[in-house]
Amino acid sequence: EQLADTSFASCHLPFAGEIYMGHLRYSTTGKSGLSYVHPFMRRNNWRAKNLCICANFNMTNVEDIFHSMSKTGQHPRMVSDTYILLEQLGHRLDRESERLFNKALDEGLKNTDITHYIEENINLANVLRTASPMWDGGYAVCGVTGSGEMFTLRDPWGIRPLFWYCDEEVAVVASERPVIQTSFDTEVTDIKELKPGEALFVNKNGVLRTEQIIPQKNYAACAFERVYFSRGSDKDIYQERKELGRSLVKPILKAINYELDNTVFSYIPNTAEAAYYGMLAGLDDYLNLQKSEVIASLSPKELTSENLNQILSRRIRAEKVAWKDIKMRTFIAEGNCRNDLAAHVYDITYGSLQPYKDNLVVIDDSIVRGTTLRESIIRIMDRLHPKRIVVVSSSPQVRYPDYYGIDMSHMDEFIAFKAAVALIKERGEQSRLTEIYHRCKQQENLPKEKIVNHVSAIYKDFTAEEISEKMAEILRPEGITTEIKIVYQSLDGLHTACPNSPGDWYFSGNYPTPGGIRRVNEAYIDYYEKKEI
Length: 533
Known about the structure:
Layout: H1 6-12, E1 40-42, E2 51-59, H2 62-71, H3 81-106, H4 111-121, H5 124-131, E3 137-145, E4 150-154, E5 163-166, E6 171-174, H6 177-184, E7 192-193, E8 198-202, E9 208-212, H7 223-229, H8 235-246, H9 249-255, E10 263-267, H10 273-297, H11 305-312, E11 317-318, E12 322-324, H12 335-342, E13 346-348, E14 359-364, H13 371-382, E15 388-393, H14 415-426, H15 430-442, H16 464-475, E16 483-488, H17 491-497, H18 505-508, H19 514-530
Parallel strand pairs: 10-11, 10-14, 14-15, 15-16
Antiparallel strand pairs: 1-2, 2-3, 3-4, 4-8, 5-6, 5-7, 8-9, 12-13
Helix pairs in contact: 2-3, 3-4, 3-5, 8-10, 8-17, 12-13, 14-16, 15-19
């Protein structure tokens, strides 16, 4: 009876309350520790001025925000984007509270009546509208004040995803739709997506409203969210990942010289599984077409049960070759432990193919650094003695850093970049690398809106296939003699499979915000000055 009493629960049970806010994803900085754990809190003696925020985001122009705050006389202690946003929002919250304080005085209110007046009338839309226009980045920011006001704001480009659901008992926002469906046993049609630049507010009385805070800009929902980061249990993402696998059938067949009967297909768990099913479906369609053509070519005398059974018995050979034994993500691990981690993540199913006769095709969701391939996957796959190993990426070549949510900020982290640089050096064109450096330096002090992406010139003279071939050379472990091929998704294939997520800057260099373009040029300058070209 007491547990069913909400008043008792809120007073006596630990962690029972009306508002819950958390950040449940792994650290996107590749680092760990309490200083990186959301939410972050700004304390004040006035309830309405206390602020707590958590976010799925990266800002490209933290320094600009820092300087704008300094001009007002503030002295932020750190220049991290989470802390800077907290202080900036806190400052605007202070101003909103003071506006209401003065208004309450004008109306003749005193003491705690002023406090109640502020808490009843505070408008967080004013806070967001004055703070957010200078933000350059991808973000889904949530906040709550000490007096019980809540807000969530999505960036105006729609880079980061954000969903919400409301019924008579609960209002909830989350970066992913399936968690809302599972937690509250609701249908996908009941869940809404927050529009770019839109905010959702819930006041302390539980009244929900949405309001456009920033005008929507060029829509650039992150395609990499669909390929890798978001839950594959989402209705749309599952179908998109299957289509990514299906669209790779032609280049895969080319890579195995169309030796379909002597090829085993598998995937690198766990996030590539949906693409694997799509790949198998596409291969089945191709094989069925072959069967139909063979049957149609038979003469009446050749249409025997024996011949038909032989034709129809051909199957796509699908096996679970790779096993992931520990739940570790080498993609976001700290650099000094990534190689050691990669070497122990996978194991294989022995006897799953015919040695020296069968090709082995394994599909992954992405090949970014290539660390796991070189240190673990290729070595382990080679123990099966396949005639040829074909590694397939369901996403295109990751050529550029990201600055909107995942900390991939160094150019030489990417195996595609390393391959392009190696090709440039093979051609004796090192001067091109120097020329790109000088172009980047010349616009270093320009306003970010006038900067162009000069780094893209590194890739302009090479086809995707040439870069993939060079990657295979670079990633070949010492002592491995098996033929290795790497097949990547095309940009067109990505956009066909994920039509509602046009943000492809990882792959194309088309950054949706000026800050992203500035940062990629800075990354190349940093690379050039630290490396001997």
